[in-house]
Amino acid sequence: MKNVFVKLVTMDGDDRSSKHIESMFENARLANPDAIIVRHPDTFLSPSMQIEMVGDILEQANPTFVQGDDEREVLILTYSSIVFDAIRVLIHQNKLAHELVECLYVYYDASTKEVQEVYVDLDEYGRLDHRPDGFFDSHSRMLSILMSDKPSKDSVHETK
Prior knowledge:
Number of strands: 5
Number of domains: 1
Radius of gyration: 17 Å
CATH class: Alpha Beta
């Protein structure tokens, strides 16, 4: 899977972000008709099946299964941190080159009234260079709330 370029996209759930991503995916499809575009592949799958599904998608995209030796582009739109972590594990296991993985978080910024794109880089071990608020962080937010001494009125679904 070393020649598979993966763009993993997640968003905040705002309709404006959704329209932005749909436009981005349509442009990618027009620019590269061979690109594999998968929207919410994790829907209705258990965590173990989500992990297996990531491997299956990338295995099918592997250039050894298609003619030619060029890189194959895979765009995945997901809300699942399990899908995100499965890709990070493949990087850590040296089955997927970190240089060929882009992680993008798209969100609507109410203060600027614009859709923003934030890229998160992964190193050769699958570690993040930073984690923007809202980027696969609901688990961390829930743990923070549960670990605090006082009840919190913060929502695990809100981005700051």
